[in-house]
Structure prediction request, 430 residues.
Amino acid sequence: MTNLDGRNQWGEKEYPKDAALYAAFEQYAKENSGSGLKAEEQLVRLKSEFGLDIRRSKLYELRKRLSVKSVRKNIGSSAQEQVQAVLDVKANDLAGKWGVAQVRQRLANQGTLIKRDNVRQILHDHFDLEFEKRFVGHMDGLRRIPLDCLGPWHQEHLDGHEKLAEQALRMGEGVSLPIYGGKDQYSSFVPYLRVLPNVRCARTIAHAFLDFVEEYGCIPLQLTTDKGSEIGEMVRCHERLRLNAAPEFTIERWPAAIQVQSKHNTPIEGFWRWKRAGEGHSIKSAIFIGKDAGLFNPNNHMHVQVFRWLWPPLVQERLDEFREYWNNHRLSPQKHKLLPSGTSPRQMWLAPESVRANARNCSISVDTNLVRQLREELGGAEERERLMNFVDAEFKAAADDALGQLGYPIITLSSAWDVFVAVVDILTHV
Prediction:
């Protein structure tokens, strides 16, 4: 019998607006190193993000109607454009550490979807010698035990990275670009990655942690850190927030924070190796250009101040791009790993049940008033600005004005020292 009203036993569904759907499909296409999420994974994400429960046939219908681009339907991208896109990405890889997967993920993050074989061929054509240099031929010698946890937000691993700090750069006092970051154990998702003036200052790390809490509106069940003294204030804030929001989790059974040796804090320590290969070497090489060419004088206070004004935003921009790459790239399947793999960290972070049926989101929503109170106990917003900024507001205004006189040129790893010299020249004459 004909169904005249068009309704069936599944009921009516409320679809999000086309713009929101298209943006979601664009994000799904970027993940898994540019291969895109599988249909089943997309269905899980649609249900998780929009409450939209549909079948595969409807998914394909929606994608077709919205003309969603995929790696198999890369409309308007010629062979020459693909080559140029790869070359543009590699322009920031001064150390030659980015392989096929990393370049492909970075392209996907920019909206350029290219088949893996095509990227590999382009890299072999233009950067063939890099493949042999990236070959891994050693192990670290430590006996590793597979890690496991309940789901995202169960254990957040935090650590500082000082390969761009003062002792590593050796460019004088105050010339330092240390980084602090966190990584979720279950999903390998990196929710926080920030360049800070000092990652050994307890108050700086505490303010950075509160920034993280304000951004996400929640805290993890447990923090895992090394045994440095800089984590004391952060742990205190976390314990108070957790006790206030979830007193049922007792410290005896569910520790709020665990401190281990750095070599055993493997989730975040291992991530620093990937970051060094992805961004660290290129950034360090770019910084040393000015050092080796004699453009930077560590005994010149103006040089130090301009360095501290110019380089942190540029490094943060590179970190944001790398974090986007990491969270969207595909983790290779690992048969000896207890935690899930085989898809993107973002997929496992947002839809943990798609890779493990019994996974649970362990995030704990916090009281924003208590967050503000803890901030005040640490000196308030004024103290945060002092601890988190590399230069004071007066110098920043003067340097920004000098940049305006230059016509606001785009600052990249390749152009940074040209801008540095020009800004120093203007400020010196002023």
Q: What stands out?
A: The beta strands are 155-161, 179-184, 192-195, 218-219, 222-225, 257-259, 364-365. The two ends are 86 Å apart (CA to CA).
